[in-house]
Write a structure and sequence with these properties.
Heat Shock Protein 90, rod-shaped, alpha+beta, 384 residues
């Protein structure tokens, strides 16, 4: 296994070596200068030399004069050595400072460059790009950090791919459930119409001729609704964009309840000669989903009332049933996907209703009392 020093150990060893070398050089320099100073001072034996002179002869006077000149020269040499020592010490310490700064700048660059790379890579990951790989180079700690980052990036990339795959599967499963639920609504009036035709064909051939055209019209109408649903759901994975049209909601509601009215007690009250701006296919889905829920909780003799009211330039469509009602703790959850208390329910019908209502810029409210029934109110602006 190849041993590599860490950054802290490397920096400590580097500066210890630098300063130990500096101290050795300075020590050698001062020792040398001290020797020169000592040598100059040895030449100054003024007291001993002067004490040997009697000053009675010209020779002694000349000797004293020479000794004084030599003393002055030695003092000048000592002063020069001291000045040189101060200058060289200052220059050496300045160069040492410059060299230390350069070392620090180099180390700072070595550390900050890979950290900048890590910062950029982290920003890419924050934006969702997990396929990032950093070259595993540099000092020990930075190399280990890059290895950990690359490992994390690779793991995140794998998790992202798995999540994308799982999300696609979940979307298609949800689509299939919603599609199955929505197809069931048009199939119910088709089935009722066919059963009615079969019953009259066997028991009352004359009545069969009377209801034949009406039943065929209902079947064709529901098949047309199925086609619209298929077209709508083909674009569901991309986006639900409403195709706004202007129509009279009373007329469309009468067409929707016609196939049910022969089997269930459904009444429409307060027909309005007003028009709304709404996606017509979405309107059909909303009414049929809520109506089907009312039918599911009602007996055949129970009244299901659809009432149209006006309030402050808004149209309120109320669908009122006499079923078992919704417990108070469940009212806030009925529009959640997959929430249902029905044994065979998917919990997607009302969730889709809420979504459609929102994208068509309308609103929906629910009032309910256990064992007395529920009222669904669809609130939308009408065209004035």
């Amino acid at each position: 296994m190849k041993f590599r020093l860490g950054i802290r150990s490397s920096v400590v060893i580097l500066f210890l070596g630098l300063y130990l070398t500096s101290l050795i050089v300075l020590n050698s320099f001062f020792i040398n200068k001290q020797k020169q100073t000592n040598q100059a001072l040895r030449n100054i034996r003024l007291d001993e030399a002067l004490s040997e002179l009697t000053y009675k002869t010209e020779k002694d006077s000349a000797r004293a004069k020479t000794l004084l000149n030599s003393f002055r020269e030695s003092l000048a040499a000592t002063g020069m050595i001291q000045s040189e020592t101060q200058i060289y010490s200052a220059v050496f310490l300045f160069l040492l400072m410059i060299f230390s700064i350069c070392i620090f700048v180099i180390i700072f660059y070595i550390i900050t460059k890979p950290l900048k790379e890590l910062q950029i890579a982290t920003a890419n990951i924050r934006e969702g790009n997990f396929s990032i790989f950093l070259p595993e180079t540099g000092i020990k700690e930075i190399k280990e950090l890059k290895q950990s980052f690359n490992s994390m990036s690779n793991e995140l990339d794998n998790v992202q791919q798995k999540l994308i795959k799982a999300e696609k599967e979940m979307i298609w499963k949800e689509l299939s459930r919603i599609l199955a639920h929505e197809i069931k609504n048009p199939l119910t009036p088709i089935q009722l119409s066919i059963q009615r035709l079969e019953e009259k064909f066997e028991t009352d051939p004359e009545k069969f001729q009377e209801i034949f055209d009406e039943s065929v019209l209902i079947i064709n109408q529901e098949i047309n609704n199925l086609q619209k649903l298929a077209k709508s759901f083909s674009n569901f994975a991309k986006n639900i964009i409403p195709e706004f049209t202007i129509f009279n909601p009373s007329e469309l509601i009468k067409e929707i309840i016609k196939p049910y009215s022969h089997t269930y007690n459904i009444q429409l009250e307060g027909e309005k000669n007003i028009k709304i701006r709404f996606d017509q296919t979405h309107f059909y889905q909303v009414i049929t989903n809520i109506l089907q829920n009312a039918i599911d909780v009602s007996s055949r003799d129970d009244l299901i009332l659809i009432k149209l009211e006006e309030e402050e330039y808004k149209l309120i469509i109320k669908i009122i049933d006499q079923g078992k009602g919704i417990p108070e703790e469940d009212i806030n959850r009925i529009f959640e996907p997959y929430f249902t208390k029905k044994k065979k329910g998917t919990g997607l019908g009302l969730a889709l209703v809420k979504k459609i209502i929102d994208i068509n810029k309308a609103d929906i409210r629910v009032k309910s009392e256990v064992n007395k029934g529920s009222t669904f109110e669809i609130i939308m602006e009408y065209i004035r």
